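Batch manifest line 218
LIGAND: zinc ion
JOB: complex structure
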Amino acid sequence: MKHLVAPSVLSADFNNLGRDVEMINKSEADWFHVDVMDGVFVPNISFGFPVIKAIKKLAIKPLDVHLMVVQPERYITQFRDAGADILTVHLEASTHLHRTVQEIHAAGMKAGVAINPHTSVHLLDDIISDIELVCMMSVNPGFGGQRFIQHTYKKIADLSTLINRHETSCYIEIDGGVTLENYQKLLNAGANVLVAGNTVFASNDPVETIAKLKTPFS
Ligand code: DX5
Ligand code: ZN
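JOB STATUS: finished
ARTIFACT:
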């Protein structure tokens, strides 16, 4: 599977959000990664429906919405209406995860489950066949620009084994601390979606940085 790149708009310039959305449109990026934080599940608040709707108005690529929100099942149809194409909830935040996944599908979206760095991939055993994406957090969620946690490589290998054992297919998305130095190793380990915030938006030429992240063997 050719890997995908999803720039995280959390690191965009919100005074020039339209410009940054157009930059992602014209780049080789595949998806927009959209981080929603509620100040409860994570110690930070990002943005909500009005900002997502504004992104959706201009975006010509799918919106991959990552909810760092307690009880995310409360808002499924609102996120669909705001423009989410893929809706990812945290395993740690949804008590009835199977029902939540069913509701995401019923609302017409692809369903993802995110796991924190301390959460074992084995806890996905009874949900992996029902979802399209696992968002593996490679930093503790809440902030952009943090340092990548090395233990993630082992978790990617464990997750690949789990997916193969279930004879299912599912994106393995890595979120947090992805850089031009580690992305190749992540792909080799089995990742196939790279989220990148700081690496893209703090670079001198974001379009070129996205192109580099899209190049498998540089
Ligand atoms: C962290 C968010 C990430 C974040 C990644 O809580 O889920 O998507 O934007 O940012 P970088 O790539 O800067 O670590
Ligand atoms: Zn994210």
